Structures are given as C-alpha cells and as structure tokens.
Amino acid sequence: MGFILSLECVEKVDFEVRESFGDLIEASKALDLESYFKCFDADRFVGLNANGTNWNSIEDLKSFICPIFGMIEKVQSLDFTNITVSVIDTNTAILVNEYEQSVVLKSGDVAKASGGGTQVWSKACGNWKLVSVSASTKPENPNDLSE
C-alpha cells in the first residue's frame, strides 16, 4: 500500500511545479534558450515529439528546439488555457496543459500553433526539473481527427 500525502504537501508541490512551469513559459516567451534548458534535467530527460518520434536525450531535444527558436523574431502570444498538476509524491508531479501560440517569424510571417503537452517534473536533485515531455498538436479543424 502506498502512502498518502497531506493536503498541505500536495498544495506545496502543486505550487512549486506551477512556478517552475512559469519559468519555462517566460523563457519561451523571451526566446531565452539558456533559461529554457535550465528547466530540464539534462541527465535524465527523454520525451515524445508531436510527430511520434522520441527525444532520447537532452541533445535530441536541443537539436529540435534550437532551430525553432532561431526562426522566431518575436512571440506575440503564448497562452495556456488548461493546466492540471497531478502530484505523485513529494519529488514527482505530472503537469498537463493546452496552449495557443502566435509568433512572428524572422521572415515576417505570422505562425500560429495550438496543442497540448504532458510533462513529468522531478525534484530528485533539489530543484524541480523536467525529466519527460510528450507533445501534441491540435488539428486546425477540431472535427477532423485525421491530422
């Protein structure tokens, strides 16, 4: 039988994870790669891209994220419409979210995206860090699930 966390403990973990998620959002809005990757546990990270391929290391994620950040001139908006945290224990939590984003590319074009993500946060090394991310994109037409 597992242990039960007190409501106070759950609320504390929830607050801390949301605060760390906020740091990730701010780094994304600022296109600050250094601050962005400080949110990840570089030794333990694995993840799943929205296209169904794995990120088997932080280097795999960097090779995906860095070129994207490099194409963006400015983040017009990055809004999270649905954030839920599930506290597993005092050192582990899962955060799910839905987002909508609009960016101005260096070409001058505006690109919009929406989707969601599942993030596994760990405090094993003293600070909350991402150890896994799974990304998804929403279809342009919500009634068309074939995308």
Could you list some keywords that capture this structure?
single chain; 147 residues; alpha+beta; Nuclear Transport Factor 2, Chain: A; 6-stranded mixed β-sheet; 3 helices; 29% helix; 40% strand; SnoaL-like; SnoaL-like domain-containing protein; NTF2-like_dom_sf
How would you describe this protein?
- The protein has 147 residues and is α+β, with helices and mostly antiparallel strands.
- Helix content is 29%, strand content 40%.
- The chain has a six-stranded mixed sheet with strand order 2-1-6-5-4-3, with helices on one face.
- The longest helix has 24 residues, at 7-30.
Give me a quick take on this structure:
The protein is built from three helices and six strands, in the order ααββαββββ. By secondary structure, the chain is an alpha+beta fold.
